[in-house]
Specification:
Length: 92
């Protein structure tokens, strides 16, 4: 995994809202499927990103009275994924 420095300026090829009780990694997989990525052909998520840390980050944000938002930008499976507390976007 290589980290992107910013959110792409172009429109995403997939955008999904994260359900209130959904783990961030589950939302990330839903976004990947919406972007028509063949998940049977790609490496496991755990080989690309610390899935537990991602889920904990979203869970912590939901539990706390966080004043700020977070945005995680990561290159996964030759696409750029942008994870925010409310949504996941996929860019080419």
């Amino acid at each position: 995994m290589t980290a992107s420095t910013r959110v792409p300026d172009e429109p995403p090829i997939a955008h999904i809202s994260i359900d209130d009780d959904e783990a961030a990694t589950d939302a990330l997989f839903r976004a990947a499927r919406r972007a028509h990525l063949d998940l049977d052909e790609v490496e496991r998520l755990h080989d690309q990103i610390d899935a537990g840390a991602l889920d904990s980050l979203l869970s912590h944000h939901r539990r706390s009275d966080a004043d700020g938002e977070f945005t995680l930008v990561a290159d996964l499976w030759d696409h750029t994924f942008v994870v925010r507390p409310e949504a996941v976007e996929v860019y080419p």
